[in-house]
Every structure is written in C-alpha cells, then in structure tokens.
Write a structure and sequence with these properties.
- The protein contains one helix and ten strands, in the order E-H-E-E-E-E-E-E-E-E-E.
- The two termini are 20 Å apart.
- It has one domain.
- Strands 1-8-7-2-3 form a five-stranded antiparallel beta sheet.
- By secondary structure, it is mainly beta.
C-alpha cells in the first residue's frame, strides 16, 4: 500500500515544521472511504465518500498520540499509539477501499491510503489500521 499525502496536507505539514504562524499541528479524524478511488496529490475531502456501514464511526487521533519521528532508510516515520479500529455491527455491510485523515481544525485532507485489496465490511467484520503510522520521504 502506498500512502499519499495530498498537496493540502503537505502544505499544512510544512507550515507546522516551519511554524510561520506560531500554531502547532492538529488532531486527525481518521475515516474509511467507500468510493472506488485512488488518492492523488490533488485529493480533497470531496474526493472521498465516507463509509456508512452499521457501527461505523470516525476515529480521533490526537496530536499527543503520535510518537517521536524516527528515520529508517532515509524515510521519517511516526507511529500513533491509537490504532483506528472499525467494526461492522449489523446491516447489509459495505465495501471500503481505504482510509483518509481530515485535520480536525483545518478540515483538510492530511493523508490518505488505498488498501491493496478492498475490504468487505459485513456484520462482525473488523478493520484495524495497525500499525497506524505516517511516512515522509524525499522523491526525485
């Protein structure tokens, strides 16, 4: 799976690193999406259709849930202590194609990832994003 950090998320991340306005980062609202879509650099909230299966709810990952960044083979990783978990508790189920994170303050897409294989969320199904981590890499 290749995670994408859309341009609006990149801009926010860069702003936070450089801290030009004195504002720290923001909490993430992590959601599953049900439209057959592959995230790209120009993705926005309108690009995603949030899942609606019975029992579904978005998961809040707060700023202090993220661990310190570490570097592995020139890639910076940060892992959350919160594992977003989604359980289908009934109904007809739904197919989900991946996840996206919305900034709780900005309302911008911070990151998104399409699953290698779509998930069928039928009653009793559980989807956990474990480990839940982000990566930043230099591309050439």
């Amino acid at each position: 799976m290749n995670m994408v950090i859309p341009n609006e998320g990149k801009t926010l991340a860069l702003d936070r690193w450089l801290d030009p306005d004195g504002n720290p980062g923001e909490d993430w609202i992590v959601r599953l999406y049900s439209n057959n879509y592959t995230p790209v650099d120009s993705s926005t909230l309108a690009s995603f259709t949030e899942a609606t299966f019975t029992g579904y709810s978005a998961v809040l990952v707060e700023m202090n849930d993220w661990g310190a960044a570490s570097i592995t083979t020139n890639v910076a990783y940060s892992t959350s202590s919160v594992t977003p978990s989604y359980t289908c508790t009934g109904g007809g189920g739904q197919t989900v194609y991946g996840w996206y994170a919305e900034g709780a303050t900005s309302g911008k897409v911070l990151a998104a990832q399409r699953f290698d294989t779509a998930r069928s969320m039928t009653p009793g199904s559980v989807e956990e994003l474990d480990p839940f981590r982000v990566a930043f890499k230099t591309f050439t």
